[in-house]
Every structure is written in C-alpha cells, then in structure tokens.
C-alpha cells in the first residue's frame, strides 16, 4: 500500500486549472521532495491531500483513504502548511497543549516535541514574539505531537537560517530513519538534493518527472534537472 497517492487529481478555480490530472505515488518510509515553480500547483495539491480543498475530480489519498476519513488524523498524519495555526498571544507551549488536549495527548509529549525542535528555552515566550524560523519549528512540533507515520510539509525551511536548514535536514532524516514517510515541498533545490530520496516535479499543475533522486538528476544536479524539465514544459 502506498503512503500517499494522487490519482488523476484535478483542481479548478473557475476556468483555471491549478492542478491538472496529477497522478503520483509516494512510497512509505522515504523522503520525497515535491518540487515545481511558483504557481505550479504544489500547495493546492497538498491542500487537497489534507482536506482543505475539494478536488474538482480525481483524488488525493493518504493510506488509501481521504484525509477526512482518517479516525484520528493527528496520530496518523502531521502537517505543516503554514505557521499561522497558533494563537499569537499564547506561549508556544500553551499552543501545543491545546492541540494535544484535543487529541488526548499528554503534556509530557508537548515537552518532548519542544525539545526535539529545540524550542525548550522559548517554550514560555508568546508566539507573537517568535521569529519566523521559531514559528516554523513550532509548527513542526505540532506536526509530530501525535507521533504520526506520515509528515506533509510545505516549505518547512522558510525563515530558517543556514544553521536552521542544516538542522532541518538532520531532523527529517532522523524521522525517515524511524520509518516515517515525509512529503516535503521546497524551493531550496540544493538542500533538497542533500535531503530527499525521491522527487516529484510538477509544472502548470501537471507531473513532468518522478522517481528516485538519482534517476531524475542523472549525472548533474537537481537544479540542472529542475531547470531543464520546467523550461521544457513551458
């Protein structure tokens, strides 16, 4: 069984197709980079995947089910689609405690994930005083609260400095080494080349390449392959 599957996914806004007949499979236990130019349809595809947008046709499934059909999503799928889901006037710890309480997760797990994302020292600080990078780390903490087997991340490196990006690479690899499946969208191609096992590249809502990182880039770099493939699709 595939961990994530897009099957002829179409999402239209009016007459504009943001996603156009996308079919792709994400294998379990691997890190897959979801790549494409701005406006390629990546975020829309991910929103369809986690039930924030309804497909016009086709499907986007997790563990062969629609997201809304999952019995306890927080313990099966962790998501980072933006860092705006928390209350700015509450501390990072309090925000996570509220999410944890809704899913029957203990406060001890909150402290554990704060340590994992290296926010223990800032746990009592109000989120509105967090830097963008700290907000991204808090979102990651929220995503792993339920110890899910699947992580879906949209631009998780946004706002991170070089040290933070290196930390994120190690964090994702550690998650994958535990057998977790990670689908990550990013524009940082050099970093993706050093992080992912597989890639999916889309342009104008359509799939233009998928496979292992080695198969897709050949003898060159991910940036070379990305530019060649996306320019050829224009």
Q: Which structural class is indicated by helix and strand composition?
A: alpha/beta
* Number of strand segments: 9
Question: Radius of gyration, Cα only, in angstroms?
Answer: 17 Å
Largest sheet descriptor: 6 strands, mixed
How helix-rich are the residues, as a percent range? 25-40%
Estimate the mean pLDDT confidence.
92
Shape: globular
Elements, N to C (H/E): EEEHEEHHHEHEHEEHH
Q: Can you tell me the number of structural domains?
A: 2
Percentage of residues in strands: 25-35%
Q: Which class of the largest domain in CATH terms?
A: Alpha Beta
CATH homologous superfamily heading of the largest domain: P-loop containing nucleotide triphosphate hydrolases
Per the CATH scheme, the topology name of the largest domain is: Rossmann fold
Keywords:
single chain; 234 residues; alpha/beta; Rossmann fold; 2 domains; six-stranded mixed β-sheet; three-stranded antiparallel β-sheet; 9 strands; 34% helix; 25% strand; globular; ATP binding; transport
